[in-house]
Hints:
The chain is built from no helices and eleven strands. With 114 residues, it is an all-beta fold. Strands 2, 4, 5, 6, 9, 10 and 11 form a seven-stranded mixed beta sheet that branches. It has a four-stranded antiparallel beta sheet with strand order 1-3-8-7, with no helix packed on it.
Amino acid sequence: QVQLVESGGGLVQAGGSLRLxxxxxxxxxxxxxxxxxxxxPGKQRDLVATITSGRTNYADSVKGRFTVSRDNAKNxxxxxxxxxxxxxxxxxxxxxDLWGENYWGKGTLVSVSS
Length: 114
């Protein structure tokens, strides 16, 4: 079993920054990809950013503002969010892909006020 715990969410004004962290623990032998998704009220869960060995992928809406990174030794993934906008308000979920097995965190709320 794998557990994911997110932290770093909160309330911030537009233009501000937040850094999300996600720690993965449990039966982890090899991680393919780690990443972040978000779900705004009344909307589907969408990809924000993912990172594999040496490659990152971002949603168009966050390119140039968000940066995803990972610490393989600690099984952690981070999301640095700058120039936040009210439309970034959502619950942010951490995801880990163990080569076909997907695990999710419980989510952390990010609220951006205008």
